Structures are given as structure tokens and as C-alpha cells.
Amino acid sequence: xxxxxxxxxxxxxxxxxxxxxxxxxxxxxxxxxxxxxxxxxxxxxxxxxxxxxxxxxxxxxxxxxxxxxxxxxxxxxxxxxxxxxxxxxxxxxxxxxxxxxxxxxxxxxxxxxxxxxxxxxxxxxxxxxxxxxxxxxxxxxxxxxxxxxxxxxxxxxxxxxxxxxxxxxxxxxxxxxxxxxxxxxxxxxxxxxxxxxxxxxxxxxxxxxxxxxxxxxxxxxxxxxxxxxxxxxxxxxxxxxxxxxxxxxxxxxxxxxxxxxxxxxxxxxxxxxx
Amino acid sequence: xxxxxxxxxxxxxxxxxxxxxxxxxxxxxxxxxxxxxxxxxxxxxxxxxxxxxxxxxxxxxxxxxxxxxxxxxxxxxxxxxxxxxxxxxxxxxxxxxxxxxxxxxxxxxxxxxxxxxxxxxxxxxxxxxxxxxxxxxxxxxxxxxxxxxxxxxxxxxxxxxxxxxxxxxxxxxxxxxxxxxxxxxxxxxxxxxxxxxxxxxxxxxxxxxxxxxxxxxxxxxxxxxxxxxxxxxxxxxxxx
Amino acid sequence: xxxxxxxxxxxxxxxxxxxxxxxxxxxxxxxxxxxxxxxxxxxxxxxxxxxxxxxxxxxxxxxxxxxxxxxxxxxxxxxxxxxxxxxxxxxxxxxxxxxxxxxxxxxxxxxxxxxxxxxxxxxxxxxxxxxxxxxxxxxxxxxxxxxxxxxxxxxxxxxxxxxxxxxxxxxxxxxxxxxxxxxxxxxxxxxxxxxxxxxxxxxxxxxxxxxxxxxxxxxxxxxxxxxxxxxxxxxxxxxxxxxxxxxxxxxxxxxxxxxxxxxxxxxxxxxxxxxxxxxxxxxxxxxxxxxxxxxxxxxxxxxxxxx
Lengths: 274, 240, 307
What we know:
The structure holds three protein chains of three kinds.
Chain A: H1 8-14, E1 23-33, E2 39-49, E3 53-57, H2 64-71, E4 82-89, E5 94-95, H3 103-109, E6 110-113, H4 124-134, H5 140-153, H6 157-160, H7 173-185, E7 191-195, H8 203-216, E8 221-225, H9 229-235, E9 238-243, E10 246-252, H10 253-258, H11 263-269
Parallel strand pairs in A: 3-8, 3-9, 6-7, 7-8
Antiparallel strand pairs in A: 1-2, 1-4, 4-5, 9-10
Helix pairs in contact in A: 4-5, 4-7, 5-7, 7-8
Chain B: H1 10-43, H2 46-77, H3 81-115, H4 125-147, H5 150-180, H6 185-217, H7 226-232
Chain C: H1 3-49, H2 55-59, H3 72-103, H4 108-120, H5 125-139, H6 146-171, H7 174-182, H8 187-214, H9 219-223, H10 257-265, H11 270-304
Helix pairs in contact in C: 1-11, 3-6, 3-8, 3-10, 4-6, 5-6, 6-8, 7-8, 8-11, 10-11
């Protein structure tokens, strides 16, 4: 099985010796076929380290978004997609791709933030509270607390605390994306999936989201798909490079960006691809 | 390294190629400086010596120009992996080359001073030998950079040990001369400075080789012993 | 760019703009023709019948004397029939559309159903009348009543409601659905909390437009036998004694405005023509009011939602 390299980033910041890295999820021999038969993911083996950010990079069509969406079973929403292989969640060792596992249960443990900010056309409060309501939470005070907590974690509370009943659409793009992050955080997920979260945002909003991801790492495990390599280099501890459905290389972000082992990785990173 | 030329951006290709060729140009100029400084010393040619001293400004301005280009590449292109290592290696290489240029200028100064003095019987043969040795080192190092050849780089680094030994021998000889005849002390001191400069050049040349290893393997081998390098980088037990 | 090129371009633009102006003129004429025709017709009706419109016109039953004839029974009949239509068509139509859009599997059978729903909107209304006669009036024995009329018209506008609902549901972006699912919602939670609320504007618009059409449908109502001379109102739904709510009015005989107009038009007296014209004016006013309501609702809902 995969040997997880030590996370240099966290030790550099804290100055302490590295603790043994725990795994949050293990991907085993994952294959994925779209409804038209297209073999989108080929034998992927990967491990997600807990409380670390893992980035997925690769050219268009390499399968990184497909791979991301396997984690929260989004492919189940469209008919005739087929999974093969396992994704084991720790510590309970559940295979979230198992046919007996309800996708809704998976989505309650793993949240997602999408590429284009997609808040509901409701108030800011209702957006964040929706996940809680879906889980049957009814006590107003509890919902209030969790909404505030989520908005604080998303670094949005100060900006919206006086207008929680305002329509979410009145926020700027960067704020809307942070609202979506708050919505995803409100339910205390174990893994947070980001699908190119800043590709629709301007550089300042992008920088604030990246900063946020850095802070969120202490609470959740993060898997982020990005086509911006510098973002992957800045934000993640581990990076996986994918190419036409294959996992070409997986390792420490620092190592991948200064001295990758595979030529294909090197070619992509330095812009020689194509 | 062929892949150098296949970036999607032709501009980027051209920029990287440009700094490489400029480094080699600078190296060529520096080699020439060493050559001419040695000649000036051995032949007592004052004009040549002064030419070398003046040309040092050219070396300095090349360092500044290449540094500027590297900064721009970093700002514009955010180089990664091997491109990043190339730019870093170039920045370090030109620093060492500029120092080599300074040492060559020192030798030229000594040459000018010694030109008016009494010439020894062997015509500075030992300095000449040391100088040739060192110049070959620099030449081979630049060659290894051009061909990105870590075997060649390693061999040059190994030469530095021999250069050090040779230098020690020259110093012992010169000390003997000074002890035999105290009137020669002020003259011989200049020769010693020249020898020292040559030994320094050898050290800088060996630094160049460390950067070549970094460029190719991504491993920083400054302050690593030769035996370690041989074992880890070249993948063979030391001494072979 | 040198002078000759610039002048060439200018001349070309002048030529092309001539076609521009020509078409704008043609469009304007066509529009004026249409609007003018409608205005003339409406003005004609108004001139004919305006003097008859008043409180007693609304509160009198039809009578043999044109001056004392009114539309009370017809107006009440129209309103009650519309009520039954709405209560039947909206839940059925919305539920069917939700099922077709969200739950039905994508196979040939679903496709077949979808095609046929759209086709149904084009079926001549008299066919619905025949269906209603056989099914509601005789087979189910509802008789020639408000219930039959309401159900018939509901069937008539059902395809419109289904199509309007489906269009509104489709207009909800997939990204919102994915966001809801990603947060852990079930299909029904997604539909009820998000898809339906955001489609309400479109659904209402579709319903109101359907009603505006149904209000003027005469053929099916005649077929199932709405009476043309009713001088009484259906029994009131609220009674003085238990059980306080009566459904007898559903089974009562009735008439509607178009039928009343038709009846008056076929009388020889000049005065009845004015009555018909007045009733026509009121009918048009009701239709216009409903359309205006539809537009306003659409505007209101669109303000809240920006995709």
C-alpha cells in the first residue's frame, strides 16, 4: 500500500517534530465508468492524510473532477454510472462506494464546495441552516449557534452578522463562495471537497479563500481540485497528478513541484505538456 | 537537455535558453580572463595585465544583466521543477563566476606588480602549472553545465582535492625560497597571493559542479562530502 | 486605413442600414395592424355595451326583457367553474410535471408520455367536451353540473399547466440541485425546499394563462349541457346548520359568461346585442386582469431569484 510521506508544511510552521500521519480515507483500485461506457478513472490508489490538504492537478479531461465526485457519490445522481473499487473511510472502515451504503449517508460526512458559487436563492441564514434542517435539527437556538460558528469558520461572520436575512445573491462573488463554504461546514463534515473553488473569482477573493483553506485544515481533511498549479503548490500538503484517468504521481507537494519523479508530471508542471 | 526546448510558450523557451547561453558566454569570458592573467604573470606583460583588470567590469555587468533576467523569469513565469532549478542554479553560478573573475583580476594585479621585479629562474613554472590545472577545471565545469553531465561535474569536483594539494606544494616551495633569501619576501608574497587566488578559483569551480548536481538531481549537495555525493547521487560505492 | 477603404466601408454601411430601416418599418406596420384591429374590436364592443354596465347588470338575473337582464348567474357560474378547475388542475398538473422531471426514469415510455402531453394541448376543445359528456356526465353520473364543467376545463388546461411547470422546473439550474444534494438532502427534500419554491413564479404564470384560456371556452361547456337560461344561483356552500359546509353547489345546474353571451346574441332584439357586448367587455376585462396578474407575479418572483 502507499507510503505516506511526512507533511513538511505543518512541521515547518509548528517547529515541532512530525507526528505520525493518520489516514482519513484510502482509495483502493478505483475505476469509474460513465454511463456511455467511457473509462474515466483507471485503477487509482491513493490515501488522504487526516487534517491535511491534498490537491489534484492535471490537464483538462484527466478525471480529477470525476475522482473528486466519487467521494460524495455525486455520480449517483445521474443514471448508469458505475464504480469499481473501494474508498475506505477511517476510523470506521466503511467503504463509501459499497452498494449497501446510502449516498445520502456519505454526503452527510463529506461536503462539497463547487466551482461556481451556488448559494440557494434564500437568505444568508437559510443557506447555512439548510444542511442542519435536512438533518432534522429544529431548535432555533441550536441552529443559530451552528450558523454563527460556520460563518465564523468561513471568515464571513463579521461581514454578514447584521444582515443574516438578506438574500444571498446580494453578496459579492468571493463572499458567496465563502457562504457556500460555511454551508458545507455547518454540518461538521469529516472531509471537505473543493472543486476548483476559486476559478470564478478575482485574485483578492482567491487569496482569501486560500487563506481560509489553510485555517480549515485543522478541523477537516481537505481534497481540492485545481487547474491552477501555483494554487496547488501554495495550498496543499500533498499533490496528486492525474493524466487521462491515471494517477501518475502522488507525493509531498514540495517534492512534486521542485523535483517530480515522473517525466509526465515534470512536463505538465513546467508547461511542456502538449 | 532536449526537453528544454519544448515549452508551450516559445517565449519562455527563448528566455530560458537565453540565460543558459549568457551564462556560458560569461564563463567563456572568465576563462579568457584566467588565461590572460596567467600569461601576464608568466611573461611579465603589463599591458595584458591591465587589459584583464579593465575587462573585469565586463564580467561584473554580465552578472548584473543575467541576474536581472532571472528575476524577470521568476516574476513572469513562476518556474517549477527543472525550470526552477535551472534559474536557481544560474543565479548561483553567475555569483561564483563573478568571483572567479575577481580572482583573475587579482592575479592580473600581481602580474603587473611582479612585471617590474626580478624574474625567478623557473619563470613561475609552478604557478603556471597550478594555473593550467585550475583553468582546465573551470573549462570542464562549464562544459559539464552546457551538457548537463553530472559525471563530468563530479570529476571536476574531485580535481579540487588535487588542486589543493598542488597549492600546498607551491606554498611550501615559495616558503623555502623566502627562507633562503629574505630579500625575496616582498616579491614572493605577491606570488603567494596569486597562488591563493588560483586555489580560490578551484573552489569556485567545484561550487559550479554542486549547482550542476542540484540542477539535474534536485539535491542540494553543498556541504556534502564527495563520498556521500558519489554514493547517493551517482549511485555507486565511493572510490570506484 | 486609407481614405478609399474608409469611404467604401461607409457606403456599405449605408446600404445595409437601408434594409435595417425597411424591416423596422414593416415590423411596425404589422404591429400597428394587429393592435389596431384589437383596439377597434374592443372599442366597438365598448361603444355597444358600455351603457349597460353598472351595478344592476352585475346583480340581475337574465330575463326576457333586455333592460332588466343581467349576468349574475353567469358570472357566479364562471367563478365557481374556475374554482373547480384550479383546484383540480393545479395539484394534478404540478405533481405530474414533478414526477416527469424529477422521478421518471429516462426511457422510451417516459419520452412517449412527454410527447403526448404536449400534443394534448393542441386537441380541439370540443373533443374534451365529448370526453366529458361520456365520462363525467354519464358514466360517473356527475350530471350536467359545475363539477363536470370544472373537471372538463381542468383536463383542457392540464397540458398547459404540466408544460409550464416543467419549463419552470427545468429553469432551476442543476448547480442548485447539486448543492442541495451535496448537503445531504433526499430527492423530495430537494424538490420541496428548492425546486418547487423557485418554480412557483413560472407555475403560477402557467396556471393563470391556462385559466385565461379556460374562461372563454364555450364548446366543451355547451357539449356537456350548460343551460342557457338560469335565473337562480347554485346553493350556497355555507349553511346555517351542521355540517356547515355543503357540496351541493357542485352538482347544481349552471351557466357561464360565454354561454350567456351566445344566448343573447341569438336573440333578434337590438337591446340584447348591447347586453352581449357589455358581457363581452367584462369577459375581456377579466382575461386582461388575469394576464396582468400573471405578469406581475412573474416579475415579483423573478426579482427574488437571480441565477
